[in-house]
Amino acid sequence: MRVIIFVFLVISATTEGVWYNNGNFYQIYPRSFMDSNNDGVGDLKGITQRLQYVKDLGMSGTWLSPIFKSPMADFGYDTADYTAIQPEYGTMEDFEALIKKANEIGIKIILDFVPNHSSDQHEWFKKSVDRVPGYEDFYVWHPGKIVNGQRQPPNNWVSVFRGSAWTWNEKRQEYYFHAFLKEQPDLNYRNQATVDAMKETLRFWMQKGVFGFRIDAVPYLFEVPADSNGNIPDESLTGPSCPDPTHDCYTQHIYTQNLDETFDMVYQWREVVDEFAKQTDNVPRILMIEAYTPLENMKRLYEDGHGREGAQLPFNFELISKLNGKSTAKDFKDVIDGWISRLPQGKENNWVLGNHDNKRIASRFGIDRADLINILLQTLPGMAVTYNGEELALKDVYISWEDTIDPAGCNTSPDVYEQYSRDPVRTPFPWNANKNAGFSNSDKTWLPVSSDYKEVNVEAQEKATRSHLKSFRKLTKMHQHEKAFTQGQLLMKLVGTDILAYERRVPGTKPEENFVMILNFSNNTHKVNIPQLFPQMSQMYRIEVVSMHSLSHKEGDTIDGKNFEVKPNEAFVLRGGAPRLYSYLILCFTMFSAFFNIKLTRA
């Protein structure tokens, strides 16, 4: 056995009494979670009905994708009123009932907050168009430039959803900037009135009982302002790798993303939520930051290094953006080490492997590795974030061009829409084998349900002897209650490039209180000598969790770690130590066989 050893050691930071430390968080996509009134769309009452399921998964909190009033051009990420509930989802009374239920069962509600842009139907935007005093500069406006007698946008900035990021408003006679859809005008954070209004939004929902916010699209908050002559610079072109001038990749976003002012705004929002906690119940509120951004910027989202605090949980998307089904164990280890090595001192790790914008785990990495990925997520130090349905190993659902409604797909063509549409990961949640997977009794759901829902659903996995769901629940329980997973050090090693092995151990504790994880990221079978990898651990182990497709092992088995066979794509959580009688018998047989030169064969 060729063992290539790379070591990284870290002790996960924990803070006694802080509810989110080492926490598990579950993203609910409200339109698809549970429909209580049979209109084909999920709603708040449906979430309330199913909230115990989320609690039973072992979750500390759940964040809801946008529920604010919206014309749904981007399914809630175009807010028309930051303090009102989208009527499809229910009423403010329904939301208050959800908060009450959450408090009763002990789970925190976190809201998706979309501060970069509003809907063009928001009252603020309408007033800004009309130049109502106090609202003239709520959004980013520019008169454009005249070229050969024709008015044109002020520069070459491109929208995420294709085409120019500037749209002409005939009434105001100016262009407005929108990083996303034209129906999503960017708010102007260089205007103090805008900043104050958004801070009041945070206070409003905390007063309603939420315990934090997932903040959307943070890198886009600021753009460079016009110079003294009213000019805004073009962004540099990417070059031959992206020649399409309508595509987001056409330019390098040096003037529209990750500006210094962006990080300061995060620090301001942290001050708002901390101040609220101090003035009320002294329970910290959490900020989760969505930012697909280089690791050096992630450090700044945690803190400024001079005493100002940022988010407790800037989403770590490294495992999403840098890894796929072809990634090796070494690739995974490199990404994990890269994140941990850049984590500011005293801050907590977090791990995200799925969300409503990316392919599901089982589709991205393969169904045989779905449990492996969840084992990784739940046994690394720090906080873990799960998208609804990943605990069931759901796969992306095929959505035809005719049924596609996501603007990211609709703004392309029938030939390429599947590369961009996010509809396949947003389909109705499968509760059982009844009509529409138990999600709704409507004749038509807002997106089609999966064709395999009669076999793959919560009820079926709860009844099965072994299931992805049952393994996931056991993992979250261990993540929450085992000292090795809340306080233990992480020691990672590689066996070749296929096997990732790591221990979670608290020095000075008994072997049975510590764990070794073995993950095979290949289609090859390997023999692993665990005592050689981790000399301070034991030779005998009990299998606590094993990936579903494993036919050679089951939970509760005791194995000898000295010559442990790991088959393709298998993953294990192994508890150190073994029953004393079993270990004694193994020792006796080993001595006996050695003495008589008899080869010991074990099943």
Quote the beta fraction. 15-25%
Mean pLDDT: 94
Please state the structural category.
alpha/beta
Main sheet: strands, sense, barrel: 8 strands, parallel
Low-confidence stretches: 1-15, 579-587, 598-603
What's the alpha carbon Rg, rounded to whole Å? 26 Å
- Spatial order of the strands in the main sheet? 14-13-12-6-3-2-16-15
**How many DSSP E strands?**
24
| Helix count from the secondary structure assignment | 18
Q: Level of helix content? A: 25-40%
- In angstroms, what separates the terminal alpha carbons? 21 Å
- What is the 3D form? globular
Which features characterize this protein?
603 residues; alpha/beta; 7-stranded antiparallel β-sheet; 24 strands; 17% strand; disordered N terminus; disordered C terminus
Offer a quick outline of the entry:
This protein is α/β, with parallel strands linked by helices.
